[in-house]
Hints:
The protein is an all-alpha fold. The chain is 74% helix and 0% strand.
Amino acid sequence: IMPVFQHILLHWESLEKDSKAGKFKNYPGIQSSITLAWNTTTDWYKKTDQLIAWVATMVLYPRYKL
């Protein structure tokens, strides 16, 4: 799930940068939706660091091993 989550974050990050640069000035609904999606996605991503099971999985998984 985390590789997909990171891909989504990268996509939203580029849209958020475009939104802050004023690329969507003529479309205020889209601009606010992008900002809301970015904030929601980052909030959920931050919550993954709080899960002990997630930390254990990252330590034990051979690809992401410390």
